[in-house]
Amino acid sequence: MTRADRPAASLQRNALAPGLLAAIALFLAPLLIGGDWFLFIRFVVAILAVIVLWFAVQARQWWWVPVFAAIAVIWNPVFPFPFSGPVWIAAQPAAAIVFLVAGATIKTPRA
Question: How many Å separate Cα 57 from the centre of its chain?
């Protein structure tokens, strides 16, 4: 069976690419905490959280909306919270896993 013979997929995962990018940034974040590059990580994570939130709204998967709204607020670079310590370091890979799961599960019908 060639690629042209296969039927087109009926669902698409719009949140997968932003979820992967955010996960990469968040897995690198513990190495950058306390440095100037962590501000860049905050921008990336907050923006990608809003993008994934929007894809969740489009897919009508409402349970992801408060999760990504919270991530966008907690990682926001404009009014940053003064988090530190092992809980904040552990929150980085935990949020990365959330992005990966959401990217894999948020699906919309292909038009």
Answer: 14
